[in-house]
UniProtKB/TrEMBL annotation:
<feature type="domain" description="FAD-binding PCMH-type">
    <location>
        <begin position="26"/>
        <end position="191"/>
    </location>
</feature>
<dbReference type="Pfam" id="PF02873">
    <property type="entry name" value="MurB_C"/>
</dbReference>
<keyword id="KW-0131">Cell cycle</keyword>
<dbReference type="InterPro" id="IPR036318">
    <property type="entry name" value="FAD-bd_PCMH-like_sf"/>
</dbReference>
<dbReference type="GO" id="GO:0008360">
    <property type="term" value="P:regulation of cell shape"/>
</dbReference>
<dbReference type="InterPro" id="IPR016166">
    <property type="entry name" value="FAD-bd_PCMH"/>
</dbReference>
<feature type="active site">
    <location>
        <position position="290"/>
    </location>
</feature>
<dbReference type="InterPro" id="IPR016167">
    <property type="entry name" value="FAD-bd_PCMH_sub1"/>
</dbReference>
<dbReference type="InterPro" id="IPR003170">
    <property type="entry name" value="MurB"/>
</dbReference>
<dbReference type="GO" id="GO:0071555">
    <property type="term" value="P:cell wall organization"/>
</dbReference>
<dbReference type="InterPro" id="IPR006094">
    <property type="entry name" value="Oxid_FAD_bind_N"/>
</dbReference>
<keyword id="KW-0521">NADP</keyword>
<feature type="active site" description="Proton donor">
    <location>
        <position position="220"/>
    </location>
</feature>
<protein>
    <recommendedName>
        <fullName>UDP-N-acetylenolpyruvoylglucosamine reductase</fullName>
        <ecNumber>1.3.1.98</ecNumber>
    </recommendedName>
</protein>
<dbReference type="GO" id="GO:0051301">
    <property type="term" value="P:cell division"/>
</dbReference>
<comment type="function">
    <text>Cell wall formation.</text>
</comment>
<keyword id="KW-0133">Cell shape</keyword>
Amino acid sequence: MEDITKKLNIKFLRNEPLSNFTYTKTGGCADLVAFPEALEDVSAISKYASQNNVPLTVIGNASNLIIKDGGIRGIVMILRDIKQIRQINEFSFVAGAGSAYIDATIFAQKHSLSGLEFAAGIPGSVGGAVYMNAGAYGGETSEVIESVKVIDENGSIKDLSNQEINFGYRHSVIQDKNYIVLSATFTLNKDDANLIQARMDYFNALRFSKQPLDLPSCGSVFKRPVGHFAGKLIHDAGLQGFQDGGAQVSTKHAGFIVNVNHATATDYLNVIKHVQDKVYQDNKIHLETEVKIIGED
């Protein structure tokens, strides 16, 4: 992969521990980490990887992600510098894939645009939010997206309408097609900026009161089973406080696994499996992971 580091004017790091970027503070090394700053750079890296048969992994804020201790081969592209947010018209704005979802909510509030309040405390990136249709407190990303600019499997840039994204619960066509999100266009409703801020403050207060925000975690670990709440199933199974290595089922919110003592990704995966096994044993319900798990053992 020597060619690409010389060919493109992009910051690259070799054999970089991905624990430096994940919210869990875990994860092995990547062969090469790229930090593109322009859409053209993202496209160039994508085309290079495709043409040279080099594995390519794309990461945003790495907030709902577990990277295994063996790390990731090939190129890891971190989009944190693709973060411009700009207004298009009275009701719409576009946000780069690497921009923090929280920054998008702040931008919306400052422009008296309502509809993104639910995302006020979601720590991920805009690209990640689109990828998994992130949601909270009754709101979902699918409800506020007009269109998304992506790079397809051929390295070509294309625009997808909301309908073409095929949003579902924690799902989008981005996952199926391995597209790379470049930016998203939000269309919202006008409202009083103070009322918008009050709703954002309310949701953030709920989040602070219920979630273990003082410790490293990967956010909500499990999808919500139909007719149930993952956190309640885990709580009822007596698993709060269960620990393997440095990873622990949060004593504050059973749906979170926190890093309490230099946890490894393997610790996290062991806790996840134990929780899944115990909940299935008690309820015959299989908890599916919401967190994305990638990398080598």
